[in-house]
Amino acid sequence: MKKSLFLYLFVLAAIMNVFTYAYFSKKSESDQQMLTSKLKKANDSTLVLYNKLVDESYFSLAHNENAQEYLGNYEYNKLIADVSNTIMDMNQNAKGNSLVPYEQLSDSKFIINKVKVLNHRWIIADFSDGKTWGEVLIKYFIEGDNKFTFERIDSQLYQPQQSSSEE
Q1: Chain centroid to CA 150: how far?
Q2: What's the rounded Cα separation, in Å, for the pair 65 and 102?
Q3: What is the model's pTM?
Q4: Which of 26, 36, 110, 165 is 20 to 30 A away from residue 45, measured at CA?
């Protein structure tokens, strides 16, 4: 009887080992497939984000070779920085930035927050007084080293958004 008990225990242990091996083998394959699918999804997401970045930067002096050629020897990275700094320096005016065509609507003056140089001739800028926001399209001319003249083409002032606490 002792022999048959050991035989049954041995057979039971062998069967358990076979089932355990089969379980962990399939689990490993399943984990590998899941990892592969997640990696593929991540690569697809990266490609989508890259394509979106390329689309977003299409209208930018940094990615416009024709506009860069038009500038000649003027380094476009320096030009972008110089133009942006010149426009931001205009925020120091007591009445606000002179490129914004709107008078003060509140205690705060309108200042330009963000500038994007589109090409060798145009700029788009975002402005606000802290409550009201807008955008302005600007034409610029290079007069010399760090000397620019600006001409406002058009602007858009958006209605202030009502916050939930004001309602």
Answers
A1: 27
A2: 35
A3: 0.68
A4: 26
The answer to whether residues 76 and 51 belong to one domain is no
Is 163 a domain residue?
A: no
In whole angstroms, give the CA distance from residue 120 to residue 40.
40
Q: How far apart are CA 14 and CA 7, in angstroms?
A: 10
Does 92 share its domain with 139?
A: yes
- Residue 1 tokens read as 């009887």
On whether both 44 and 94 belong to a single domain, the answer is no
Q: What is the mean pLDDT of residues 97-105?
A: 87
DSSP 62: G
The domain in which residue 18 lies consists of 1-56
**Which tens digit of pLDDT belongs to each residue from 40-80?**
998 999 999 998 888 888 888 888 888 888 888 888 899 99
- Dump pLDDT digits (tens) for 79-98: 999 999 999 999 998 888 89
**C-alpha distances in angstroms, 55 versus 10, 89, 101, 120?**
67, 30, 30, 19
